[in-house]
Design a protein that fits this description.
The complex is a heterodimer of chains A (111) and B (314).
Chain A lengths: L1 H25 L1 H11 L14 H4 L10 E3 L4 E4 L4 E6 L2 E2 L7 E2 L11
Chain B lengths: L1 H22 L15 E4 L2 E4 H15 L3 H9 L2 H13 L6 E5 L5 H23 L6 H7 L10 E6 L2 H14 L5 E5 L12 E7 L8 H11 E12 L5 H23 L2 H13 L3 H11 L2 E8 L4 E7 L2
Parallel strand pairs in B: 3-4, 3-6, 4-5, 6-7
Antiparallel strand pairs in B: 1-2, 7-9, 8-9
Classes of the chains: A alpha+beta (111), B alpha/beta (314).
Protein name (chain A): Protein preY, mitochondrial
Family (chain A): Belongs to the PREY family.
InterPro entries (chain A): Trm112-like (IPR005651)
């Protein structure tokens, strides 16, 4: 009876090893992905801006609707020529922090 | 001290000049340049209006990380009861939209979402008990697809980025993803269209605003007709004995706690001083009525330590 138990244990170990070996060979890409998820590296891509906010947001100065520019990640008021930055997915609607885009002015480091 | 104020004011006016050309078309009081002439209070100090905003910003930038811990320590956990009371008075129903101003770390926003969820569950339970099993249409409406019933949402607006950062971290750790948005904005110049929100709340934030009347007018503007304005703020204690104890506690214990826990005596000194300078219950009710709110009423909590003001836009 003891021999049966040992045989059973060895058999399961063999089966286990066989099961664990084959997926690794078949999907090396999957294992690479799991390794990457364990690293504590910050994402390169910033968190996406919630476009449902666009319906509610308006320029604090003129109360006109804003246009989202995904390239520079800013909210632009065409009329006044100012752009509000979106930092970390949170739009910054303080006029002092906004950037003038008329007259080709460089980004003013306000505050 | 005067020299630094002058240079600060001069740098402000330089920035104003940049914007003057842009803003000549739009009529906004923000850049009249008279802010440095008018003076207001910063705790027991008198400062120019322009300076107050930046000083308040620095205070909350310093305390942001330890804000929640300090709230629990200073109020012995009672601030949770105050905020729960705010939600009970607010009594939001599913589909309501809340604007939480000065809501930095998100206490009110999280409570709002939990309350809505429990209301929805209550409604479902009531429907079940009445023998109305949900039809396929009801079930599919429950799925968060586009269209369908208006979803309840809360927008947290704060002028301080650090506070919002802490709030966002808390939201991530709680696993709250939908129905919650964060915006950096000024309570005196809200970046929202008119008639947007059903509810507006400002909890322990309005005393830090430089011009309270302007903030109240903006609140009136962004609320829908029938919308409700709710304000939690420290106020005047009604009982004189309790008042003496409260004063002693405020001025002796709180700054010490601030130094020990957050390493910042001055910020908490500002906090207790700003409470003393804030108008009392009746005065604030008058301010709200002047701004145009109707059916203004207030509830004293903890013997007047905190007052909950409520008004409607009609």
């Amino acid at each position: 009876m003891f021999k049966d138990v040992v045989r059973l244990a060895l058999g399961t170990a063999r089966v286990y090893r066989r099961v664990s070996c084959s997926p690794l060979q078949q999907s090396p890409a999957a294992s690479r992905v799991t390794v990457r998820s364990f690293t504590a590296v910050k994402d390169d891509v910033p968190p996406p801006f919630d476009s449902s906010l666009l319906d509610v947001l308006a320029c604090p100065l003129s109360k006109k609707p804003l246009r989202y520019n995904p390239d520079t990640n800013e909210l632009i008021n065409e009329e006044l020529g100012i752009a509000y930055p979106i930092i970390d997915g949170i739009p910054n609607m303080i006029p002092q922090d906004a950037r003038l885009i008329r007259k080709d002015e460089p980004q003013t480091p306000a505050q | 001290m005067a020299a630094s104020v002058r240079t600060f004011v001069r740098s402000l006016s330089r920035k104003n000049a940049c914007f003057a050309a842009v803003l000549r078309q739009s009529d906004c009081r923000w850049f009249t340049g008279a802010a440095e002439d008018r003076s207001t209070h910063f705790g027991f100090e008198t400062v120019s209006e322009a300076e107050k905003a930046s000083k308040v910003y620095k205070v909350f930038e310093n305390v942001a990380q330890k804000y929640d811990v300090m709230n629990d320590a200073m109020s012995l956990g009672i601030h949770r009861l105050w905020k729960d009371a705010l939600l009970h008075v607010m009594h939001p129903q599913p589909g309501a939209r809340l604007l939480d101003v000065a809501g930095g770390t998100g206490d009110i926003a999280f409570r709002f979402l939990d309350y809505i969820r429990s209301q929805q569950e209550k409604q479902q339970r009531r429907a079940m008990s009445l023998g109305q099993t949900p039809s396929w249409r009801d079930i599919s409406d429950g799925y968060p697809a586009g269209g369908g019933a208006p979803e309840s949402a809360v927008v947290v607006c704060d002028i301080n980025k650090e506070m919002l950062k802490v709030g966002r971290q808390r939201a991530d750790s709680r696993g709250v993803t939908t129905g919650l948005s964060w915006v950096v904005g000024d309570a005196e110049e809200l970046p929202f269209n008119d008639d947007q929100f059903d509810l507006y709340s400002i909890a322990f934030g309005i005393r830090n605003v430089t011009r309270i009347d302007q903030a109240l007018k903006e609140a009136l503007r962004v609320l829908k007709p029938g919308g409700r304005f709710l304000c939690l703020e420290f106020s005047k204690v009604t009982n004189p004995v309790l008042e003496r104890l409260y004063d002693a506690y405020s001025f002796q214990v709180i700054p010490v706690l601030g130094e020990v826990i957050a390493g910042d005596w001055k910020s908490y000194q500002y906090l207790v001083e700003s409470i003393r300078k804030f108008p009392d219950q009746e005065e604030f009710k008058g301010l709200m009525e002047d701004a145009g709110f109707f059916c203004v009423q207030y509830f004293n909590l903890t013997g007047g330590v905190v007052a909950l003001h409520s008004g409607f836009k009609l």
